[in-house]
Amino acid sequence: MQRRDFIKHSLLTGLGLSLAHPILALDSFPAKASRLCILHTNDMHSRIEAFPNDGSRNAGQGGMTKLASLIKKIRIEEDNILLLDSGDFFQGTPYFNVYGGELELKLMSEMGYDASTLGNHEFDNGLEGIANQLEHAKFDILSSNYDFSETILKGAFKPYKVFHKSGLKIGVFALGIKLEGLVGAKNYGNTKYLDPASTAQEMIQELQKKKCDLIICLSHLGYSSDVRLAEQISGIDLILGGHSHTFLDEPNLLKNAEGHQTIINQVGTAALRLGKIDFEFSKNQQTSFASARNLKVY
Amino acid sequence: MRNILQKIISSSFSLALVFFVACSPQLGHQFTGGFIANDLEIMADPALTEMVSPYKAKMEAEMSTIIGQSTKALTRNRGESLLGNFVADLQRAYAEQEFGISIDISIINNGGMRNDLPEGNITLGNIYELSPFDNYLVILELTAHDVQKLAEFMAARKNMAVSGMEIIGEGNQVQSFKVNGQALDSNKVYLLAINDYLANGGDNMDFLTDLPVMENTDLLLRDMLIQMIKAKTARGEKLDAQIEGRQKYN
């Protein structure tokens, strides 16, 4: 696979290294290399505004209104941005209890999110609670492994989406966590849960058929499950995780037994961090992983 | 290949440094666009703040709605506390009313109560601060042996509030205890009102995880508090609690 070749030639330009190696094999980047900037969040949990300034641990930090400022700044600098979220944007502040998620989805739409997925807390007001709020999301909510065909959410979510950015094709699919035991049974009704690993296999095949240059999985399975997925399954380039509220200092670059490399990242909760992962693609669309930073939102 | 380069460098650098990298010579030829100064302090975006403002005003108005009156400040403490007794009693009464059964014991973890209730007006916001977590009411079935373990756990950790038990402890040991004034009955099934966090082994209560579940509800403890306080107010009652010697540790 071209893509796997590439990761062998991967070139990282993190700050420490770039200072240590001021000329980083520039010739590996043809002049027309295109650049893709993935920005991502997870588990924002209705954190509309920063935590109250009351001396508590995250006082004055995080929240969507600050996150939006950071995203706007990056949009000035970067042309090719995909802004993604891995679920649990609902529940956590009274904004959700009072408005049912309307404001969360409106703000995410205003920030220009390209896609998100369903976390377990999206089910907190039942399937109706999701259906009633969907009109406020001006972006795709993807779900590959919940079968809603026998519920009121039938047809509401695409299993994947292919984004076109400057001639690049980026395939995004999304895996949710098993709801049984985690969410009250009447809140998910007849939703059928499909095995994440075999669903991932199908999605990868489909997205490879569509000749995607990059395959991204939005996962709400939790960090340890993401690691297991990357060990089991080859073909995902990037897993943007959630659910476990894991604050990774840096993404995990995992090489599985078949030699496939998957980047796994997760940025805590409450919009306290924004993940930024930059890819470089050469003319023949071989990617080159450039850098990753988990930016603090304060 | 330079393996070291495959290590991803990330995080903990401020935005200013990110843009420094973006504009540093080694990547310059790949970039268009200029340097963006960053003041390190990220301010809230004005457009979003404006979108939020009507929601915020309405929500704050709703959160300041007075739903009851308290005769005194109900405060938290290690072991037995005013707030703990109040909440544990309320949870027990609510479970009995909801399921039409007699609950023997009701417990809540002190750590699950995140703020005290003040004397005087009790607002909806006070209850959200007291109970921000989405914990659900669960009813478990305990044998006398399980109740014994529960008493030992509480005496050792002093991290629970209880209704329906009187425990006397010395150090970290139970000296004696009763359930609703009675000694343990080895033939009885005791019903315990608790939240899903503890029932699933939270706060090291793993001895609860295999117990038979009588009711696994989607009734939020916060909604329970709000409903029960409103009902009290409707009856002309105020919130109150006493330290009664439910947990005496020497």
From TrEMBL, chain A:
PROSITE patterns: 5_NUCLEOTIDASE_1 (PS00785), 5_NUCLEOTIDASE_2 (PS00786). One of its GO terms (biological process) is nucleotide catabolic process. SUPFAM superfamilies: Metallo-dependent phosphatases. GO terms for molecular function: 5'-nucleotidase activity; metal ion binding; nucleotide binding; UDP-sugar diphosphatase activity. InterPro entries: 5'-Nucleotdase_CS, 5_nucleotidase/apyrase, Calcineurin-like_PHP, Metallo-depent_PP-like. Pfam families: Metallophos. Residues 38-246 form the Calcineurin-like phosphoesterase domain. It comes from the Bacteria. GO terms for cellular component: outer membrane-bounded periplasmic space. Belongs to the 5'-nucleotidase family. This is 5'-nucleotidase. It comes from Belliella pelovolcani.
From TrEMBL, chain B:
InterPro entries: 5'-Nucleotdase_C, 5'-Nucleotdase_C_sf, 5_nucleotidase/apyrase. Residues 67-209 form the 5'-Nucleotidase C-terminal domain. PROSITE patterns: PROKAR_LIPOPROTEIN. Keywords: Signal. GO terms for molecular function: hydrolase activity. GO terms for biological process: nucleotide catabolic process. The keyword Signal applies. Residues 1-16 form the signal peptide. Pfam families: 5_nucleotid_C (PF02872). This is 5'-nucleotidase, C-terminal domain. It comes from Belliella pelovolcani.
